Amino acid sequence: MANIANIDVAGGVVRGVRTIDYVPEEFNHRPPRYYLLWLMLPAILLLAAISLYPLVWLVYMTLHEVQLAPGKSDVWAGIDNFSRLATDKKFIRGWLTLFKYSALCLSVEIGLGVLVAVILNNNRFEKILVTIFLMPMMMAPVVAGFLYMFLYNGTFGWYFWLLQSIGLLEGGSILGNRFWAMFAIVATDVWQWTPLIALITLAGLKRVPQDQLEAHMVDGAGPFRNFFSVALPNLYPFLLIAILLRFMDNFRFIDTILIMTGGGPANATKILPTYLFDVSFKFFELGRGAAIAFTLLLLTILLGLVLTKVFEDPTRKIRTEREH
Amino acid sequence: MASREIVRYRSPLRSVLQGLSILFLIFFFVWTVLPLFIMVVSSFKDLLDAFQLPEPGDWGDLGVMFDFKPTGTHYVELFTEKHFGTYLRNSLIASLGSAAVSVSLGSMAAYALSRAEFRGKRDLLFWIISTRMAPVVAVMVPLYVIFRSSGLVGTLPGLILAYTTFNLPFAIWILKGFFDNVPYAIEEAAQCDGCTRWQAFRLIIPLVAPGLGAFIVLCVLFGWNDFLFATIIGSGGAKTLPVATAELVQPVKIQWGMIMAAGVVTTVPMMFLGLLIRRYLVAGLTMGAVRE
Q1: How many CB pairs under 8 A join A and B?
Q2: Minimum distance, in Å, between the CA of residue B78 and any CA atom of chain A
Q3: Mind telling me how many Å the CA of B271 is from chain A's nearest CA?
Q4: CATH topology classification for A88-323
């Protein structure tokens, strides 16, 4: 900021000179830490209050039998909440179902998504089709759940009718059948999230070096060969991100499953977070729920570590490779 | 840049592939659009029309889908009898409130994180991103107990705070990426011209404004579409649209017409917002890992 100062010069004093606080070393340095700290502080404090503080609570809850009724105090339980998990069949089945569900979702979504992206890439209608395809992603998962429940309905559902008409289904019900229910919820997830995979792949395809493709073609490679040996290796980092993100979302959001089956029939679609929801908010066994939540969080942190590694690599690596 | 003009010779294989890919595109288009279409159409059908289906295998009778008299009763009922106006307002307040808190605090923190170098920065960033990735149900277990004891369950502030658990780390993480792309030289120049540090920070905000806007929209979208927090923490006083929609399911009969209408009311605004921020959508949904 400008100041007014009196400056001593040889032969006298010059009054009222405009000066600025010129501190040379400050210009070439980042802003001082305390200043940045103050900027950071509100967000960090708020985040700590709504994430670290609950985490402390979660650990506390895993070690206690939590009483929700007023006046009663929590009972120390030691590691009972955890040791009981080891013999809890539903807990173990919940993990298995979660992996089965994710594996089904991811394989179909990656397959379809890559196919859509490859076909759309440089297509005449690319822009408009992409815009149409991303509409399901904007829908609230609850609404998607209801919509598919409506389509699967045994008396007036159009998809039920369709499956019957092509002879896949005899009758009965889709969501009430142990075999079909899993595919039904997978189909809903596939409908909503394949477009995201397609968009990520499309972004990756735009970065496939054209000269490599050309060189390959000049050498006589056909479209299949071209895709598998040039495009696909360039796509791996993008697919990895897509898989990790979708896998995380599969157990982050259970809205659709809660609406459509609630984990049934006979626990066929009871993936672990759904079981956690039941234990905590239906039976209100919060201590046990906390222990289950803790195991889920551990997996999240593990995946997060992998993800941050990947985050730092792909786009940047590709960008720098191109610059050099 | 290599040329994009690759000479392609017509070979039988290529023609077959082309035909197949067009067929697949049509299939995928129908698969994507049909449910949306049925939702909209069904929301305008009365009970009897909605239950009309052709006999199994009777492909010629597909026209039944369009054989109805459009009626707006479901929408009218939603807003008069079911008080969807209130829930719409709740949804708006909760999602906008959380977006405002997240982006305002988040942009300051993101700027600071982008400019600062200190030990443990990576750990701090990891903590921030893992907060965002934690499963909603798992976060909710302790949050519910805390909110219950502090009287936040069933209130809009409680819901705003709950949404902030995933929106704030999201905003910090994404906006940090934006500030990383703004050269520090701009701030230096501003400070040479006599700006304070705070003024210099305000000065570069317009440079990230489009992204900032897009991520406010995304934060609104995440809050708006949330069901789990809303059903546990917002139940009672702060019912949002997804919760209200779920409550249309009654033990005796499910009012499908109204549910479809509620679905349209919940979905259409978000689809428009989604189109609005189309350019930032992929970056937003992949936590900034993939840019188009």
Answers
A1: 313
A2: 15
A3: 6
A4: MetI-like fold (1.10.3720)
CB contact under 8 A, B115 and A36: yes
Cβ-based neighbour number of residue B198 at 10 Å: 10
| Nearest residue on chain A to B40, alpha-carbon basis | A147
Which band of pLDDT confidence, cut at 50, 70 and 90, is reported for residue A186?
Answer: very high
pLDDT in tens, A49-71: 888 898 898 888 888 887 777 76
- The complex's ipTM? 0.89
Local confidence band at A235 (pLDDT 50, 70, 90 cut-offs):
confident
Judging contacts by C-beta atoms under 8 Å, the chain A residues touching residue B256 are 150, 156
CB contact A304 to B (< 8 Å)? yes
What does the alpha-carbon distance between residue B202 and residue B198 come to, in Å, rounded to a whole number? 6
CB within 8 Å: B227 and A140: yes
The predicted pLDDT at position A230 comes to 84
Q: Pick from B129, B227, B256: which is nearest to A308 by CB?
A: B129
- pLDDT digits 0-9 by tens, B197-220: 888 888 888 888 888 888 899 999
Contact B105 A139 (CB under 8 A): no
Confidence of residue B265 (pLDDT cuts 50, 70, 90): very high
In tens, the pLDDT along B153-200 reads 889 999 999 999 999 999 998 888 888 888 888 888 888 888 888 888
Contact B194, A20 (CB under 8 A): yes
Mapping DSSP to helix (H, G, I), strand (E, B) and coil, where does residue A76 land? Answer: strand
Query: Nearest CB to A138: which of B54, B139, B270?
Result: B270
What span, in angstroms and rounded, lies between the C-alpha atoms of B82 and B66?
A: 28
> Which pLDDT value is given to residue A190?
95
- From first CA to last CA, the distance across chain A in angstroms is 42
Domain ranges of chain A: 2-62, 88-323
**Is the confidence at residue A322, as pLDDT, over 60?**
no
A238 interfacial to chain B (CB closer than 8 Å): yes
pLDDT of B252 = 72
What CATH number is given for B75-285 in this structure?
1.10.3720.10
Interface test with B, best of A20, A29, A65, A142 (most B CBs within 10 A): A142
Residue A96 is predicted with a pLDDT of: 94
Helix, coil or strand: residue A3: strand
Q: Which site among A27, A146, A164 would you substitute to test the B interface, given the most B Cβ atoms closer than 10 Å to its Cβ?
A: A146
A100/B141 Cα distance (integer angstroms):
25
What residues are paired with A5 via a beta bridge?
A17
Check A30 against B21: CB less than 8 A apart: no
Segments in chain B forming alpha helices (H): 12-43, 47-50, 73-80, 84-115, 121-133, 136-149, 156-180, 184-192, 197-225, 228-232, 241-246, 256-276, 278-285
